[in-house]
Amino acid sequence: MIIPKMRKKYELPLFAKLPGIHFDIDILKSELEALDNEWKDVYEANRGLCANHPELAQDNHANFEQIGLTQCEADDIKASLQSAKLQCDSMVSTMKEQYSPLKAYKLKSKRHKAISPLLDEHNWHQPTDYYHSSPIKKMIEEQFSEKAIRVRIVKLKAGATLSPHIDYDPTYAVRIIVPIITSSEIMNVFWKRHEKYEFHLPADGSAYFLNVGFKHSVVNLTSTDRISLMFSLAGQKDIGAIVNE
Ligand SMILES: [Fe+2]
Questions:
Q1: Of the four listed, 3, 51, 157, 188, which is most buried by Cβ atoms within 10 Å?
Q2: Dihedral of alpha carbons 200, 203, 208, 212, sign
């Protein structure tokens, strides 16, 4: 069997609508209603994973909330928010002590060498009690062949901008977004070779690949919270049809 070579960020577009994938927006909206009491601060939702991006968590925690649908298999989910912040801070200082900033950054793409299992998104695949029987799980599993990791619903509040940042190369994991509530002026922004690109992603049931290996941001200068289903795929099988621009 020939295993296709994993494509790196420059071999993939900045974003792409996934052909043949469709999510029922009405079902996603009713799931949102059912989960409305579950919004969490990024520290609490991401636990130690915040240590991968401490500045991002710090700059955006007031404007960005999440509902986790899968969690880390190694995480103590009963820990308080205070201890989640402490856990994150202590991981950041451990990383600062042990690694140069460049090396710490590169750790994100070296899944088996991460200093803690919490820092590896591939460990964030355990369904929450709610997600076990959620139609979201069914829609993802029926339409994707790769394992979905770090499944969550994310909210960028009205009037907020997500700080520009880089997550990881698509050889590590493949980021997928399904906008649920948006407004036509809300933009996903990417920078590639010093050029800026802006795209609006409509909430029409489409799923999009996001090339989070490039610097990116989301600008929401509207009065509407942008809410999306977001997850990563553990491999690239489902984006085989995507061509680079
Ligand atoms: Fe990101």
A1: 51
A2: positive
